[in-house]
Amino acid sequence: xxxxxxxxxxxxxxxxxxxxxxxxxxxxxxxxxxxxxxxxxxxxxxxxxxxxxxxxxxxxxxxxxxxxxxxxxxxxxxxxxxxxxxxxxxxxxxxxxxxxxxxxxxxxxxxxxxxxxxxxxxxxxxxxxxxxxxxxxxxxxxxxxxxxxxxxxxxxxxxxxxxxxxxxxxxxxxxxxxxxxxxx
Length: 184
Prior knowledge:
By secondary structure, the chain is of the alpha+beta class. It has helices spanning 65-74, 151-161; strands at 38-42, 47-51, 76-81, 103-108, 113-115, 118-120, 127-129, 133-135, 141-145, 179-182. The strands form 4 sheets. It has a 4-stranded antiparallel sheet with strand order 4-9-3-10.
């Protein structure tokens, strides 16, 4: 297998002074009170890093009221998968109950992706391979019409799933099934 590695470029400001690089990692379940800021060594070269936890009070993707209003007027919306999703019964049959009453119109999909892994049993290298799961690839778009929905239903779906909760039935905590909602 192969993996892609990212390396942050060191920018030399003066003779012996380097500009610091930053990496933001968003973790929903981290309690800031339990995290202590300290220095760690990471990577193959054991580079020194300082990690700190910061409480984020704003959503990473702000709600856009214009989009919600346009969806309410047109009664049409689409789901754009920002990350791959796993659906047990197929790529459009297992949407959450909030989508009941919305008519599935069509989808723009690419070939499925596949994921597997290794189950560890006991100690050491013993274990077995995980079953292969079929993923709906990121970039897939689902189109819906919801002529019978009221304004509250549109707002509920938008606020819950627009860069929010996962649509994926499996591994939602791993980041699968994150979507953006727009109007068509």
